[in-house]
Model the fold of this input.
Amino acid sequence: MKFIIPIIALNLILAASSYSQVDTLEAIEISTIQVSDPVTQLYVQDLDGDSLKELILCTRSHVFVYHPGDSQPLWVSPELVRPGDLQFIDINGDSLVDIGIRDSANISLYNPHDSTLIYSMAVPNLFKCYTIGDANDDADIDIVIARQEPYESGRREDSVWVKIYNGPNFDDTSTFVVTMANWAGETWVLEEWPDKIMIVTIGDSSNFEQRIILISRISDRAWGVGGGFDKTYGRFWIINPVSFQIIGNYLLGKGDYYGMIESPAGRQIYSLTSYFESNFNYPARWYIQKHLMCRFGPGGMLDSTRISFDHYRCPENNSIIPSWTSTIGDLFNSSGPEICFFYMGSLNEYSIQNRTFLWEIPEPVDSMAVVGSYSSSLFPSAEILIREISPTPQYLFLNGITHQVNAAMPIVITAFTNIVDLNNDGNDEILSISSNTLHIYNLEWATAIAEKTILPNEYLAVSNYPNPFNGQTIIKYNLPKQSDIALEIYDILGRRVEAMEIPNQSAGLGQITWDASWEPSGVYFYRLQVGSEQKTGRMVLLK
Done:
């Protein structure tokens, strides 16, 4: 486990009053979808391969599928009981995406394009979670279900049965077992249960392999006359679905987010995990909170990076514990996803692909939360959407590269359910659910500046990316006006190893690629100069 310190902390302290100078956006409602009952879940998925994403709404009794722009549903499920936990995959090989739905009674596979039921089975006794996918790489879609034996008091482990129903008929089955701790005493309880199961295809492009990833949730509690503790974390199993070999068993945090990345080493799965521990020693209280970014390949866990950590002793039992808010997306115009998170008074951006912090700034307002990421032709690159809570309740749009606040928007939309490009035009729509209605918004400038160019108020150099790097790195910058720029690079001994000048560089975002293939590994410093202003940064070359 490795904790990476941000290489450059770019100081950007922005007073709340400065945001009165940024341009204002307004939300324009372009359509609504209304169903009979309150919406419980919303999914967005391209079901027919036309690059337009369908909207899938769950209520207490039905699942509705809408094509974007249509007022009538493409498909409505039969009556169900609290449907949810939807999964999307082409089950019957017709290049159209089908839907798996679990309700309180059944797991059902539907073809929403011709309104047919492909397969249905009763939810088995002791059910915990399920997934659908090609578990054994035979081109047929399988159903995988995890069940857990009933909890009994005492110090013992419970069996968790993972059963594969092999497609296409789902009548040929195979089962393997893992064990999870479920212990209890008079003053303590440790409970572990399956929380999520996935089928993934990972590995080198010449040798992709199927894996089942089983993720548990753990609750560990103890109490007594003088105090006690409460811990929340989790465990990851990596399992070969053909041989049933347990490749890895990793005690990490609670799995909060999952995704796939493509790297030079191949296709990997990553997970953001969290660990929380609260201890009581009345009347005092202290806590530990940390977040890990973990990556997995077919051979098990590749690495785990602690991206945040905090422990604090509170003087009173009811002290407020700091909140964590984050978003994951292509925020830096790079080859892999980034996570932007706000925690303990600072806003951070971290590259999942390269395992390095890109920037860190103090919180730009007194109280805030990260809402999501937003991409549109209104901005030159992805924006991080922040909800300012105080002193002025509003939304702020902060550039994912320069961390400059570019726009503000009044809080007209009270809840952001999803931010997604529905019609594949490069402009995200904002989706918001209110009871039984889905509202869809576009954003526009409140003033007639639709073609405005976002420029910085001052010259700003951005940390190089990737960092550390092997061979080449990119130094990004932002110019308020056309300028001549000069770049110099020095080694750890102060010797200049590179110098270049670029005349008449256009205003806006720019970048310089430094090829360090002929330089030895070590620490280097760059100095970027524009007129009388200059910025410096520290880089690490690893070979």
User: Anything to note?
Assistant: Residues 1-18, 448-459 have pLDDT under 50 and may be disordered.
